[in-house]
Amino acid sequence: MIVEIQCLAFPPGVEGDTYRHIEAAIRVIERSGLAYEVGALGTTLQGPADDVWRVAREAHEAVLAAGANGLVTVLKVEQARDPEAQPTIESLTGKWRAGA
Question: Model-level pTM?
Answer without folding.
Answer: 0.91
